[in-house]
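Researcher: If only I could read backbone structure tokens as easily as an amino acid sequence. Walk me, if you will, through where the backbone shape changes along the chain. I have put the entry right below:
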Amino acid sequence: VKDMDFKTTDNIQDIYPEEIVANRPFFLHEREQSEQGVTKVPFFSSPPKPQNAPQQNAVQQKKPWKGNVDAGLTIQKGNKEALKKNKKTDFSWERTKDNVYFNSLILFETKDGEKNADEQWGTLKYERKHLEKLYSFYQESTEHDEIEKLSLRSITSSGVGYRFIEREKLKYKSEIGPSFTYERFRNDIHQTSPGLRIGSVLDWQILPS
């Protein structure tokens, strides 16, 4: 038995005897392709892609958080002088099981050199979803007002809410639950009072984003 090395440059007649090549149609076909300079190259096909494979960047997923910061400055000169500064923040983080909201406001205003507004407040709220539209919430609000000589006002509330309308551009919900208010003024006066919180929230996007 003779060991033979196969190369792409070998001819059929160099490997097998001439009488075998002449009597086999397969070898004749291979010889014709070899004489015409045709070389077979192995072909490896890639595995088929699944029909339901998601296309990259086909649909952009909605971000779970959003927020905005608004700031303004108004100066009036002439017979009446006025100055108004404000800064408002609004952030939300909406997930499958719960939501987190935060908003704040800083306001300062003077008219004819007299200060008539100087306040800051902020609210942090957490919502826990129990059913598709039913949820519970916990909210903490704080406020400081120099005009009212209010050093601190803290309102703590919790309860349940229901989402009557939940669409992309229109949302409406109502809430109810107990609340507790603590106030401290600059003249060392403290006040506390329990209460009942009833509220509704309407979010309607009129202009396109």
